[in-house]
Amino acid sequence: MRAALTAVVAAGALAGCSGGGDEEAATPTSTTTDTVTVTEPLPQVDDAPGSVADTVERILPSVVNVRTTSFGGGKGDGSGVVLDRRGIIVTNNHVVEGTTSVTVVFNDDRHRRPLAGTVIGTAPERDLAVIRVRADDLVPLPAGRSSTLRLGDPVIAVGFPLGLGSPTVTSGIVSGLDRTIEGRNGTLTGLLQTDAAINPGNSGGALVDRLGRLIGINTAAARTQEAENVGFAIAIDGALPVIAQIRQTPPASQAWLGVAYGSVDTNDAAIQLGLDAATRGAVVTVVYPGGPGAAAELEVGDVITVADDVPVRSAAGLTRFLATREPGDEVDLEVIDTAGPRLVPLTLARRSS
Description:
Elements: H1 2-8, E1 15-16, H2 21-24, H3 52-59, E2 63-70, E3 75-84, E4 88-91, H4 93-96, E5 99-105, E6 115-123, E7 128-133, E8 154-159, E9 168-183, E10 186-194, E11 206-208, E12 214-221, E13 231-235, H5 236-248, E14 255-256, E15 259-264, H6 267-272, E16 281-287, H7 292-295, E17 303-307, E18 310-311, H8 315-323, E19 330-337, E20 340-347, E21 349-350
Antiparallel strand pairs: 1-12, 2-3, 2-5, 3-4, 4-7, 5-6, 6-7, 8-9, 8-11, 9-10, 10-13, 11-12, 12-13, 14-21, 15-16, 16-17, 17-18, 17-19, 19-20
């Protein structure tokens, strides 16, 4: 079951770009939670562009390598962007979903050892997640305005693809605006398209303009064999309000199952779990001791298909359901594993650390 579950989290119509992590990491991780609110303004940059190399030199300290561990010890690699000197980093939800631990590796010549990361919140439907590390001297990347971009504007993508161990830089132009694609947790809208190479491991990394301003969060590359140099990034104008909401929502107010879960949203994912190909739902990847899931005897490998008569078609669907409930609510989950279906009643709790 462990090998099958590790493979489940890899399904999607487009290739998410977390190198190795797409196979192991897939909805919001239920690791430790925390909340931080910071009003410090993002730094400003000069209006005069220099060479691409000069721009890259400035932004490299702000782009990090996000390394994850998932059920069964599977490892994943993605990227992230520092937004606040006091430990706030943004990445893609699909980089951290379903994971059991997160570690952040820096490129700033200050933090020579990796730091443990805490996922303080996610927005699966926008493929965004916010991580916090215990540091107060990070180098944040200034934000630009994606709404001012035009077709043909030059852009630079920075991340940690293919498990190479150090940052990779690619350059190109804005190839398309306001794109819509099918992501692993639903439809992603308002994306930037670029021909700057986006490879596995670039997920969560930075797309910047020639001034070094953050204009997008890299999220996916086209997966069809016919496509060449087609990558997508979440436009920063749409991302920043979502990130702010994640940071301001107290985790203790959220209804919690006490488990981490990933998506079963393709035939292959269901078959790899030993289930009927038509099965859809959210697969339990971690059960936290002392939580509601443990009390209700949920097990790793269980697939939640229905919650209070509401069909659950993916991890994002379960997250949306939980957003409509309060801590203390009683819910009935319809669950299936290789032994067959069963009904699991449980009482939701407040998310704890």
